[in-house]
Amino acid sequence: MAKYLQAEQLSIVIITIALSLVMIVAGKKIEEGQKTGSFSRFTAGAVQLVKTIDEMVVNAMGPKYGRILSAYMGSVLIYLATANLSGLLGLEAPTTNLSVTLVFSAITWILIQTFSIKHNGFKNYLKGYLEPFALFLPMNIMSEVATLLSMALRLFGNLIAGSIIMSFVYMFTAYLSSFVPVIGQFDFIGPVLASVLHLYFDIFSGLMQAYIFFSLSIIFIGTNVTE
Amino acid sequence: MDLATGLKAIGAAIAVFTGVGTGIGQGLGAGRAFEAVGKNPEAENTIRTMMILGLGIAETSAIYGLLIAIIILFVL
User: Fold this and answer.
1) Which of the residues A215, A216, A217, A220 would you substitute to probe the B interface, choosing the one with the greatest number of B C-beta atoms within 10 Å?
2) How far does A55 lie from chain B, in Å, by closest CA?
3) A97 contact B CB<8A
4) Is residue B10's pLDDT more than 90?
5) Does B71 contact A at CB distance below 8 Å?
6) Domains plus CATH for chain B?
7) Burial, A194: exposed, middle or buried (Cβ in 10 Å; 0-12, 13-18, 19+)?
8) CB spacing of B63 vs A157 below 8 angstroms
9) How far is A220 from chain B (nearest CA, A)?
10) What share of chain A is helix, strand, coil (3-state, %, to 5)?
11) pLDDT tier at A76 (50, 70, 90 boundaries)?
12) Residue B11 — very low, low, confident or very high, per pLDDT cuts 50/70/90?
């Protein structure tokens, strides 16, 4: 790998292309299905997923802003879930790079601020920093910055911790199996132990973190626009 | 093994100790969720989603500790 190229860049491109292809095919199939009136299992599932996400976002933000943002929030959920699961395919999961998660959390943060200004007006938005009284200004600013950092670090930390623990497990099992005389060069303890751990660290933890990022985003935006 | 490496290992171990509080907190949260399901079983799905969300947020401090430990071990 070249010095300036990070391993995550390759997997970002691959995941983006694959997801775009799936989305285009799904869109075409749904259009066909609407004409003929028959849906296959795949298209029905896609429609159901979009409906569920739409409902969740509208529930959290109210119909006025929820309709605007549900498409973006749904794409974030689907992209993060795919990105977190891509570690299973041998790709470097994009979310193990802090830059990627920081960008996601920065977009959410900017959305929080914009929609808060849009909903409350600029004057009231600035006044919100002086709540409950003027001395709280530094603390309010700190808590805004903390949102940005904590959302990025939560996602990044979970994913990087999983991948580091997995690499420790592989190193340890390779060390253990090196004591076996003849076939010691081959790490045969690793696959047995690691499959269970992959189930937790990659599938469960990855999907859960994608869902948590999604729901925290809609909750943070929702609390700012519904009050 | 010089002294600096050993001190780094001790520092990383202390950083990982944040997991204690998280463990207690997550246990309390999950216990309350079970109680809630016992009281009204028809709300099980909502309670499960909210519990997982809450546990995920409670996990944050342990993750910060782990990140600091990793940074101490590999970057410092």
Assistant:
1) A215
2) 14
3) no
4) yes
5) no
6) 3-75 (1.20.20.10)
7) middle
8) yes
9) 13
10) 85, 0, 15
11) very high
12) very high
